[in-house]
Amino acid sequence: MKTQELTFADNGRLRVMLGPHNLNLERLARRAGIQATSRGNKITLKGPADSLAEVEAALLSLWERAGQDGVLETADVDAALRLSEGGAGDVSALIIRTKKRVIHPRSPNQAAYVQALKSSDLVFGLGPAGTGKTYLAVAKAVAQLIRGDVERIVLSRPAVEAGERLGFLPGDLREKVDPYLRPLYDALYDMLPADQVKKKLEAGEIEVAPLAFMRGRTLANAFVILDEAQNTSPMQMKMFLTRLGEGSRMAVTGDPSQIDLPAGQASGLLDALETLKGVSGVGVVRFGAQDVVRHDLVTRIVKAYEAKEKKRERARNG
Description:
Elements: E1 2-7, H1 11-18, H2 23-32, E2 35-39, E3 42-47, H3 49-69, H4 74-85, E4 96-97, E5 102-103, H5 108-119, E6 122-126, H6 133-147, E7 152-157, H7 173-191, H8 194-203, E8 206-210, E9 222-226, H9 234-241, E10 249-254, H10 268-275, E11 282-286, H11 296-316
Parallel strand pairs: 6-10, 6-11, 7-8, 7-9, 9-10
Antiparallel strand pairs: 1-3, 2-3, 4-5
Helix pairs in contact: 1-3, 2-3, 2-4, 3-4, 5-6, 6-7, 9-10
């Protein structure tokens, strides 16, 4: 057991970091398996050296966040510890700023993903729901549009099924398509005021469209996102990837474990990952249960399904 003492200069900022009744500090200590107490402007930590180093890094990260945002949520506390445990180091350069939110990576894989979105022209974000793969891509797209790095955002999804049989649904084209694009709209409204989303949609600065609408186009000076990409066919995926024009970046997100295609039909996402392996300018980031940033129960649900799938694989392999 080792003892470590940390001193912080600003008591007001320290109160934000510690949380009401020191709940943030208690949460960190409980998750790391150490003892932590605070008195005045000092925090005392007791526990194994490795755990103390992780908690110290997490506290210093939260100290910075408390100074920037003036408020901390439980998810921020968990994220700080995940990042320190994963050795992600200082991720301040990866902060994404939009009109409504300042978005911080909340796991080492999220940090790697944001870095890939900065440095690669094409990025594949793979993993289960709740890992932030689509949300972070939309945030990065909005930030680049605000700064003028791109002229427009194009968000797309396969609608209904890979075959996109929209004709069987009631209503006009927008009414047919919108329910399948709703998660993309939700992310946009999280980043921008509603009136700005409406104006940018009307002006064509933001376009939300089903995958079938991408055929025959060249998307220049744009940030292009394809969501639910596991439900594309190889032909659809090739069509989409070859829309990339000058000055554009592309993010492709999906969950390879949730393919809804008819039995025997190949996934365009899996085909693209195999085809583009080793191609310069292509980034691939794989998320897992440890990256889920929704309710704690979602993490446990994802882990349970992952364990079940691994058990099935072992049975298949003998």
